[in-house]
User: Which sequence fits this backbone?
């Protein structure tokens, strides 16, 4: 018995290793390619440095190490990027403009506000489209058309005009006005997947489920809340995940053209002004971590909703 | 044909669907009267209009000619009066609701109080032998149990008329036999009028007091057979000569309607 059990555990360990081994190998391969590329891409600058300092006969190992540790490399290496990330988060107080946490928070608040606005707008549009054929025909073309305009062309317009209206006619202070203009871009990007997903979701009930409601003489309101809305939940969360990532992109784009001093987008722009490639990469990694956290957060809410709705465990 | 206590009464009823390929006559010249407390089966091959007729009674389809009354009212009035419970081919339970919440669905819509809901849920789940499964979700139940839950849902608001559209069609024969005998008990216990669509001859003969034989192209009634089998029906009644005689007449009726020609 004991022998059988130990063999069983052994088999489980082997199975776990078989699952994780490919992931580790791929990760190693990425790091290898990254560092190899860094040698090639930073080589010219390194040679120029040596030439100017009249250094010759540099050993190959020294040359490689130097390309991996430049101050403004064309391609920063992993340890530089993550080192900068560490310095700019753990070693700096989070309320200082040097802190990436500070910038991430600024971007996050615009993202969250825009995401909420965009999602509500998307849901409202979907409800109108599902309940009225006239709305379906008149709104849908505009919704699709809105997304064919490149956001990079539209963002400066929204940010500048929006900011001026908010601070001018509406008399809102600059900080909330800046937040609102960025949030509008976020909302502009995130309402689309939510609207399209929810139209599909609210139309997902089968004919016999709708017939059933008809035999009860249920009102449109009852049919919506007891059938269409719960049936749309899987579609809602799938589109919210796309929407939240789009919101983040919107907030970052909104920070680029305004001369904003705070936010991950401003950090990216400042980095490119001063060729601080390590800073750019650290901000990029911070943005992708923020995006992952946002998607995970939506996924957690989805899990809670699924559990409350008695979904079969996957 | 026209009884005073007719629950369902159809005169020269016709229904034509307009499709891109031209008109399809789903029902043509149907005359039928169903009395209170009867168990009526509709049998015939695909396309004979048996489901369409049931949906017309339920106001899910509108007839294009003739007249149809339910309890002396139009189908729309009858639907708004919640005169019938409808059981579909699939259970159509809402997956996000527990069994008791599924049974509660019509009660919520019709505005029953919480205590009335609880009482009716308990009673109807008991009728279909699902007591103890109140808190389960549909996916935790077998197909037969799911269909029983959907019958409980149709019974919950005490409509006198029960419309059943091939409710056991997707189930295996053992489960189907069991549910058939349970359905007869339920019918005896509640005294409801039942309209039951099937394409199984033994099922129709076993369950019914009246069998309506239908045939396609155009959908029409070819024979109405009154069954003189006793109301108390053990499963082995299906081997008696009386049973087989009625089954033979149903089969003849189906053949006379050329029902089995060119049936895809």
Assistant:
């Amino acid at each position: 018995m004991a022998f059988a059990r130990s063999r069983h555990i052994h088999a489980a360990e082997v199975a776990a290793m078989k699952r994780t081994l490919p992931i580790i190998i791929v990760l190693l391969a990425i790091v290898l390619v990254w560092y190899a590329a860094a040698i090639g891409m930073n080589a010219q600058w390194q040679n120029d440095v040596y030439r100017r300092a009249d250094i010759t006969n540099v050993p190959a190992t020294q040359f490689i190490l130097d390309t991996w540790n430049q101050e403004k490399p064309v391609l920063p290496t992993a340890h530089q990027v993550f080192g900068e990330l560490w310095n700019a988060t753990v070693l700096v107080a989070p309320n200082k403009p040097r802190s990436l946490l500070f910038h991430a928070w600024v971007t996050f608040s615009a993202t969250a506000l825009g995401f909420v606005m965009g999602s509500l707008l998307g849901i409202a549009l979907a409800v109108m489209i599902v309940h009225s054929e006239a709305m379906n025909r008149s709104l849908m073309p505009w919704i699709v058309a809105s997304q064919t305009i490149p956001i990079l062309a539209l963002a400066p317009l929204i940010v500048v005009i929006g900011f001026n209206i908010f601070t001018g006619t509406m008399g809102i202070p600059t900080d909330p006005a800046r937040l609102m203009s960025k949030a509008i871009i976020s909302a502009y990007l995130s309402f689309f997947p939510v609207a399209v997903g929810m139209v599909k979701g609210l139309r997902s009930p089968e004919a016999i489920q709708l017939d059933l409601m008809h035999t009860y003489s249920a009102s449109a309101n009852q049919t919506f809340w007891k059938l269409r809305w719960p049936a749309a939940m899987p579609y809602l969360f799938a589109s919210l995940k796309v929407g939240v990532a789009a919101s983040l992109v919107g907030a970052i784009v909104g920070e680029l053209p305004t001369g904003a001093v705070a936010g991950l987008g401003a950090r990216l722009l400042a980095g490119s002004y001063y060729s601080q490639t390590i800073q750019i990469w650290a901000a990029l990694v911070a943005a992708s971590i923020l995006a992952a956290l946002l998607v995970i957060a939506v996924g957690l809410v989805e899990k809670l909703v699924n559990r409350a709705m008695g979904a079969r465990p996957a | 044909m026209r009884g005073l206590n007719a629950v369902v009464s159809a005169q020269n009823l016709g229904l034509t669907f307009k499709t891109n390929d031209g008109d399809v006559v789903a029902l043509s010249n149907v005359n039928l009267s169903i009395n209170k407390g009867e168990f009526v089966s509709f049998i015939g091959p695909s396309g004979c209009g048996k489901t369409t007729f049931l949906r017309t009674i339920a106001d899910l389809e509108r007839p294009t000619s003739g007249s149809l009354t339910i309890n002396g009212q139009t189908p729309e009035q009858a639907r708004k009066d919640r005169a019938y419970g409808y059981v579909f081919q699939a259970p159509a339970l809402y997956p996000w609701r527990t069994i008791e919440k599924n049974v509660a669905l019509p009660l919520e819509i019709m505005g029953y109080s919480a205590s009335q809901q609880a009482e009716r849920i308990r009673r109807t789940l008991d009728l279909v032998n699902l007591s103890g499964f109140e808190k389960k979700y549909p996916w935790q139940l077998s197909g037969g149990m799911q269909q029983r839950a959907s019958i409980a849902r149709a019974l919950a608001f005490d409509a006198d008329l029960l419309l059943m559209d091939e409710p056991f069609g997707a189930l295996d024969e053992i489960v189907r036999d069991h549910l058939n005998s349970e359905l007869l008990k339920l019918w005896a216990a509640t005294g409801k009028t039942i309209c039951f669509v099937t394409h199984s001859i033994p099922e129709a003969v076993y369950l019914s007091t009246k069998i309506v034989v239908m045939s396609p192209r155009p959908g029409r009634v070819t024979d109405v057979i009154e069954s003189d089998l006793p109301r108390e029906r053990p499963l082995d009644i299906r081997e008696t000569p009386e049973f087989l005689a009625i089954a033979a007449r149903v089969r003849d009726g189906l053949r006379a309607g050329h029902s089995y020609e060119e049936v895809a």
Q: What stands out?
A: Chain B touches chain A at residues 58-60, 79-80, 82, 84-86, 88-90, 92, 94-98, 105-106, 108-110, 137, 139 (CB under 8 Å). Residues 1-83+160-264 of chain B form a domain with the Rossmann fold fold (CATH 3.40.50.300). DSSP finds eight helices and nine strands in chain B.
